[in-house]
Design brief:
heterodimer; A: about 210 residues; alpha/beta; TIM Barrel; 7 helices; globular; B: about 230 residues; alpha+beta; TolA/TonB C-terminal domain; two-stranded antiparallel ribbon; 7 strands; flat
Chain lengths: ~210, ~230
Amino acid sequence: MKVPMIGICRHRLATDGQGVTTLVAFHGCPLRCRYCLNAQCLRPNGVWRRMDALDILQATMADSLYYLATGGGVVFGGGEPLLRSGEIVSFCEMCPPEWRIYVETSLNVELHHLEAVTPYIHHYYIDVKDMNPTIYRRYTSADNQRVMNNLRWLAAHVDLEKVTIRLPLIPNYNTQEDVAESRLRLEAMGFGNFDHLAYLTPDRGQ
Amino acid sequence: MLKTIRKQVADANQIKYQPRECHHQVECLGTCPACEAEVRYIQRQLDIRRQLGKAVTIIGISAGLAALTSCSDKGKTVVEHQAQTATLALQTHLLVEGAMDTETLGAVDVIEQPEPPVVGLVPNEDQCYDLVEEMPSFPGGQKALQAFVDSVMRYPVVAQEHCLQGRVVVAFAVEKDGSLTDIKVVRSVDPSLDREALRIVKMMPRWIPGRQEGRLMRVKYVIPITFQSE
């Protein structure tokens, strides 16, 4: 099935995954983050083109040499890539087995999507926003119960060395204490790799 | 950096290759026609060595370049963040064509750097494209392609005896005249099934070639050929 995409970016170096990678970004997301960097993934006119797994394979095959030589591969992002788990699975079943597959996800999807892709994913980059449900809802306009459930499932089924959790400090939405609290909760679940980062608020000329 | 990777792969396989200085009019991020042609040259040389039964070395050749940095000092659009060890979850999304949304970017600082390449957009008749406006197609479409595959497939006896099945993925280039070249297996199941998949593709009639802005283009293509034992 052809699904909407917002773009493909080749020749990324040491960004989310080792070696040379290609970002394959899907349209569509269950979240409405206040500081969303890719709002076009939500807009009907934000679609770059529609592709199926074979189309994506066509688009990425040219860089196979680089993937093989550097241990790189394909990064699925978006939007929320796991909403397109069927296409990801189809792609992974067709691509050269030496390619590494990465996913950048919020995990705010139904569990069956995560279950479907798990056998194929070499590393997960999970942006949990904040573990506090109230903060999460304020920032994303969504509930994080599915995120929590999926994190627990992941902790029980996946080598957690394959997981990096992103913990952003979000101006006007959470604090360093909130981030520390989120981390504690995640550590209690067994996660150990964290990416701490901070969204920067521009001066806006004031 | 991409040149370095190409050179390392070439050297490891005794392929004569000297990266040429890129004279692309705009800054080249590795996808200009010359760079793409160099990749194809190396891939062809590797294919030849495989066909001759020689071992080729690619896997991890450049893994030592773990601290890979862009071959371009001017890099790409990135979002600055305070934690040096962290990477903003969505920063890479800004690299996607048309991804910049200044309204919603209001809450982050952005360092302006050149856009990365997006596959197959600028027509160049000498290049072999990954994506064009009108992709090549089998005469009669997908159903005709499947019917052709079904009609000519001879399930290898050895594969039947061992109940081997699966999907062999074959890549090739569709030339401007519709002929298929550079045919190779990119996802193997078993040597016997791989050979049969290659045979099937080599038997195919000329395809309808791809077009970009109305002009015939040489386009890469991949198809899966599924073997299912009964």
